[in-house]
Amino acid sequence: MHQIFHSNQIIILGLILLGGFWAGKVIQLLKLPAVTGYVLGGIFMGFSVMNIIQKPMIHHLQFIEVLGLSMVALIIGGDLNNKKLKSLGKSVVIINLVEGSGAFFLVTLSTWLILRVPLHTALLLGAISFATAPAATIAVLQEYKAHGPLPDTLIAVVGLDDAVCVIFFSVAMAISGVLLQGSFKDFTMAHLSKPLWEIFGSIFFGVVLGFGVNKILRKIREKQEIVVVLLGFAFLAGEVAEFFGLSCLLLNMTYGYIITNFGPRPHIIDHLQDVELPILICFFTLAGATLDLPILMKNWSIALVFILARGIGKVGGAYLGGKLSHAQDTVTKYLGLALLPQAGVAIALVLAVSDSYPEIAPLVMAIILASVAFNEIFGPIGTKYAIMASGEDHRPKPKILA
Questions:
Q1: What are the backbone dihedrals phi and psi of residue 144, each rounded to the nearest 5 degrees, phi first?
Q2: pLDDT tier at 342 (50, 70, 90 boundaries)?
Q3: How buried is 209 (Cβ within 10 angstroms: 0-12 exposed, 13-18 middle, 19+ buried)?
């Protein structure tokens, strides 16, 4: 009976879905984002704690990674609306590049030079530090009815963060692959062909896919049928990307961008809200189950340095970017505090590392999941403070009875 329980993928999948769901509900009682509960639920059920989801089973459920990666990327791309980006001007781009590269360089250099982490691993940690989680940020903005220069800039910067992060990550993956095999002495222009193919090939096929699917969507009106088409092509693209050595994230992000900005209806990606929850619960819960707690305990100092270096890079970089772009004072002073949450894309990139470089994946996974847990707990607090300090909390004021 015990063997049947642990070898049956359907039973384990059901436990992942329900266990993650209830863990998310419990964590919401503490006023924390549900995604934190999904990850913690996965850790609890994983091989490091209860061993309900054993290591061999995680390998058999890797198809969930493709589904989750594809959906996360499609939604992020769909959030990059041209009209909104143009209305905010150049300040968004400048702030995004300065705060993102600030986190990248601080994390890479501090883990490599101070902690003596191998450069190939430090580069990947730095690239992943670029990403910011949109879900927790948007939830706080909605709760406080926030609107004004800070919230508008924040939403745009978070969306660009994840898009640029994928490009940084693609280059870092290629360089890390060379370093794992030898050293920079072995680096040739031929090694650049892989990241260039991964970046530009993914964008090209994402554009082709987006315009092709737009033609289909113009003939479809039923909401459920639209969801089937959007997701069906996203899942196919995820597998095709893996087969041809492309980026599943970048391809589907480009696909989502084209659908939103050149499709028949600008908010058509919003239809995915009705079906995204089960896939995302499984995705985050399974990611939590892969955490190797003994490895994390052994490398807690690296996780701590990662969290601190990323935080300093984000906050300091947003301030510097705001000054350079002459952004409004509230944006310059407080935006960085709202850029700390980290979840979906960071986890997705760790899973990409796991597929390509399994020898370093446990260490990277342990550090990033520790950062996700910390920043999903304390990041929304920073966002709340930024909104309150900037005076952009527009909740209805309670009436005082005479």
A1: -100, 15
A2: confident
A3: buried
Does 61 fall in a domain? Answer: no
Tell me, yes or no, if the pTM score tops 0.70: yes
Domain that holds residue 107: 66-282+293-390
CATH number, domain of 85, equals 1.20.1530.20
What whole-number percentage of the chain has pLDDT above 70?
88
Decide if 401 is inside a domain.
Answer: no
Dist. CA 350–CA 94, nearest whole Å: 27
Output phi, psi for 291, to 5 deg. -65, 130
Q: Rounded mean pLDDT of 132-145? A: 69
Phi-psi region of 399 (alpha: psi -120 to 50; beta: other; left: phi over 0): beta
Q: Is residue 37 included in any domain, yes or no? A: no
Q: Which residues contact 396 (CB under 8 A, 6 or more apart)?
A: 145
Query: What is the number of structural domains in the chain?
Result: 1
Q: What are phi and psi of 396, to 5 degrees?
A: -60, 130
Q: Quick count: other Cβ atoms within 10 Å of Cβ 63?
A: 12
Burial of 251 (0-12, 13-18, 19+ CB in 10 A): buried
β-sheet bridge partners, residue 46: 53
